[in-house]
Amino acid sequence: MIHSPTSITLEAPSISMQASSVTTTTGSYAVNALQTAQFTGGGGISADGDIKAGSVSLQDHTHKGVTTGNGNTGKPNS
């Protein structure tokens, strides 16, 4: 167990965690990746709030070229 009354900073060119399970309980969790952040998992990824890719909201985006029937729509509007 690691415990600190203030904060803990890990700094290295590369940090690797290997575990069968990782659980965090936090009021806020931020990932600031300069290049790529990739999240994968067999159970999927879920969020209590909206998810955005650029300016496109997953909850509130609209589509171009919407028609009724079995057709597909265009890409989401940004």
Q: Would you mind describing this structure in some detail?
A:
This protein is low in regular secondary structure. The chain has a two-stranded antiparallel ribbon. The protein is elongated. It starts with 51 loop residues before the first strand and ends in a 21-residue tail after the last strand. The model has no long low-confidence stretch (mean pLDDT 86). The protein is built from no helices and 2 strands. It is 0% helix and 5% strand. A hairpin with a 2-residue loop joins strand 1 and strand 2 (56-57).
Key attributes of the depicted protein:
little secondary structure, 78 residues, 0% helix, two-stranded antiparallel sheet
Helix content: under 10%
Instruction: Extract low-pLDDT stretches.
Output: none
- Helix-strand topology string: EE
Radius of gyration: 19 Å
**Share of residues in strands:** 5-15%
Question: Structural class of the helix and strand makeup?
Answer: little secondary structure
Q: How is the main sheet built? A: 2 strands, antiparallel
Q: What's the overall average pLDDT, rounded?
A: 86
Distance between the amino and carboxyl termini: 46 Å
Number of strands: 2
What is the number of helical segments per DSSP (H or I, 4+ residues)? 0
Oligomer: single chain
Shape: elongated
> Strand order of the main beta sheet, please?
1-2
